[in-house]
Amino acid sequence: MPRPGGEADKLGNRYEGIWTVAKLLEVASGQSHAITVEPIGSEALGIEFVTQLSDGSREFHSAKRQRSTGEWSLSALADPRLSQGRSVLSDLCGKLSADPRAICCFVSSTGAKDLLELTERACRRATLADFEADLATSIKLRNAFERYLIPISTAWASAFEQLRRIRVVIIDEATLKRQVHQLISFLV
User: Tens digits of per-residue pLDDT, 132-180?
Assistant: First the structure.
C-alpha cells in the first residue's frame, strides 16, 4: 500500500492511465467507437473518460486504484467529502439519470464488494419487486442500499434501474498491464 499523498497520487494516475490505454485499444480494435478523455463541463465530474459504443450509447469510466483504508464500501463510495460535496456514487448516478442509455463503469484494484453484489443482484432480477425480495435475504446489504443509494437515487425504482447499468471491475495493476500488452500484441 503506498503512502498517502504524492506517491499514492502518482500510482493512482498510472493505474488510470493504463485503464485508459486499455479502452483506447478497444477503439482501435473496433469494440468501441470513440473515447473522450477528461470531457468538459458537468460530464467530466468524477470520471476519467467516456467511451462511445457502436450502438451510440456511452460508458462513463471512474478508475480509482485503491483506498488507503481497504475496500470501497458503499459508505466510502457515497461519502461527499471525497469530491468537494460530491461522491463517487452521486457522480455515477448523475450520469445515469441524465442519460437513460448510459452505462457507468467503476474500476479499482481493491474491492467494492457491496456495490458489486448489488449490481449483480439487480441484473439478475427482472423486476423491482424481485429485487426487493432478493434484498430481503440480506439485511446488511438492504440496510446499506437504503442508507447510501436511496438518498442519491431518490427512490427504490431509480436505484434499481441505475444499479443495472453500473459495472464494477476489480482488476489489479499487474493483470491490467498484462491485458494491455496482450491487446497490443493482438492488434500489431
Answer: 999 999 999 999 999 999 999 999 999 999 999 999 999 999 999 999 9
**E strands of 58-171, at which residues?**
58-64, 103-108, 166-170
pTM of the model: 0.88
CA pair distance 28, 111, nearest whole angstrom: 29
2: DSSP letter: P
Beta bridge partners of 169: 107
Tell me the three cell numbers of residue 79.
461519502
Angle between the N-to-C axes of helices 6-28 and 173-187, in degrees from 0 to 180, rounded to the nearest 10: 30
For residue 41, CA distances in Å to 47, 82, 152 come to 11, 19, 21
Q: What sign has the CA pseudo-torsion 90, 93, 99, 104?
A: positive
Residue 54 has a CB neighbour count (10 Å cut-off) of 10
Provide the 10 A C-beta neighbour count for residue 130.
Answer: 14
For 66-102, the pLDDT digits (tens) are 777 788 999 999 988 766 678 999 999 999 999 999 9
22 grid coordinates: 486499455
Q: How many CB atoms lie within 10 A of CB 86?
A: 15
Cβ–Cβ < 8 Å for 65, 11: yes
